[in-house]
Every structure is written in structure tokens, then in C-alpha cells.
Amino acid sequence: MSFPILSSVLDPAALAGRLAASFGGAPRVTFLRRGLNDTYRVDGLPVGSAALRVYRLRWRTPADVAWEDAFIRRAAAAGVGAAQVIPFPDGTRLLTLDAPEGPRLAALFDWVEGREPDATPEDAARFGRAAAALHAAGEGLPDAGRFPLDLTHLIGSPVARVLPLLADEPALAHELQVVAARTRAALEGLEAQLTRAACHGDLHGGNALVDSAGALQLFDFDCGGPGFAAYDLAVYGWDHALNSAPDDDTPWTLWAACLDAYRAARPLTDADEAALGSFGVARTLWFMGLYADLSDTWGRQMVSPRFFRSQLDFIGRWEERLTATRAGAPE
Fold this sequence. Notes:
This is Aminoglycoside phosphotransferase domain-containing protein. This protein is of the alpha+beta class. It has helices at residues 12-23, 62-77, 121-137, 151-162, 170-190, 229-242, 250-265, 270-298, 305-328; strands at residues 28-34, 38-45, 48-54, 95-99, 102-110, 196-199, 208-210, 216-218, 225-228.
């Protein structure tokens, strides 16, 4: 009897054989990275290069992936640069692979070429325009089949996953609960007036490239779903702030350029504007919950009390900056 496995890395050569059985030829598969899912580059297919995403066990359902696929197709049809699912010759758009830990879903996506976005207002504006076009393209897309990016998904469930990891840190756990309750109350007070949208869910520079024509190409919609336009926009600002020095003004300049470009193409309500800061906090809480989810396969050392302390400290700096910005705004 083999030892139970939580998460395997599938052999690229075996994956190449599986793809050859469908497409013919001699495709070459290279393992690129382990993240939420496993990503491989595939070369030598009749359709050109591709990205193969092998989902973590029980991470997504076929219905979840079908929603993502439908959203991407809508976006591409509307002229948004978005890496699409590549169908297999028999029309299949999703595989099930018999991994040691259990059946894992897999899908092929367009391979995107281009440069990484620069930390400039020009590239920030590209994100704002892309987000506006993406949200417009997703209007009318049914929610059914996909998990919603609601306040339970962003705040309630993540905090519930983190708290058991803080059983020996009652002060830290209490601080987390206070922040979560405050943020949820603020967003619930605005929720009825917030603009709903089909969201990318992870809208930052790690999931986009600028092609040779200067157009932004988006990929990795895996964390997207029906949610709030302001959340997508908050993720862009959150990512820059999280990955910059606390006294660096660049993230805020970039976020402002992104928001200005979005507003020029698509209106934001007063509630959307008021919710941006709180959605940045919600994103941090979601991020903490994500790491708690991954601790079984990435290791508990990654989710030590020190990690959660750093995230709560970031929330404090984020809220201080927003308060200072509002205080300095003209009447």
C-alpha cells in the first residue's frame, strides 16, 4: 500500500504523452511553477505554445472552470486581451488527470508573450482601461456555477480558516477578529449601492503582460467570479502597496492612475469609491486565508504568527494612509 499523498507534481514527460495522444506530434512540457495550481509550458502543439494549468485537488469544480472559460471568451470577444482556453481536438475543454492524491482537473490556455508591466502611470492606466472593458464584457454573464466573491468569501471564510492557526496567539486572533468585523460592517453598509461585476479577482502585474502592440494581456482568472467592481480595482492598489516600502508613494500614484483610467471609461458610484479602502483590507484577509488553506502542502512555517502579524501591520499602514489621504483631500 503506497503512502497517502496530499499534493503531487505530475511528471512533465507523462503530461507530454497525454497531450501527444490528443494532438499528435511530440509536444514538449516544462514545469514552470507551483502556486495555487501547477503551471507548465507546452511547446510543439499544432496550435502553438500553451500554458497547462493542473488544478490542486478539490480546488475547483468543472462548473467553476466552465464559468471562468465563459467569462474569458466574453472578454476576448469584446476586445479585451485575455488568455483563452484551448480546446482539445475532440472539443474537450477540461481534462481530468488521475493523480496519486486523486483526480485533478487540467486545462490548456493561450501562451501570452510580452513584457512585464512597468511601475509607471502609463501601465497603471492600461490596467484601469482593461478592468473597465472586462467589467463591461461580463455584464449579463450568469453567476451560476461559480463561487461568488462576496463578503463571506473575502472575509468570513478566510478568517474562520486562520483562527485555528492562532490558537496559541489569543491577542493576535482578537485583533484579526476586530479588523474583520469592522471591515465587514463597513462594506455591508455600502453593499446595496456597490456596482456588481464579473471580476478577474487577481488583477495585478503578476497576471498580465504588455504585448508588442502595447496592449495589456490578462491571464490567470482562477480567483475570479461574480463580485464587486471596486474589489478588482482595490486588488491593483493592494498589490503595489503590499510589495513596496511603507514610505514609498509610488503605489498610491499608480493606483490613482489606474482608477482615473477606469473612471474615464466606466463610472464608479459614490459607494464604490467609499468601498475601495475597505476592499483592500478584505483582500488582505482573503490573502491570509489563502495561506492558511495552503499550509498543508506549503508547510506551516509559511503561516507562522509572524506572517499574520505582518499582514495585520500592513492593514494598519493601509488604513493610516487612506485616512491621511482623505484628510488632505479638498472639500
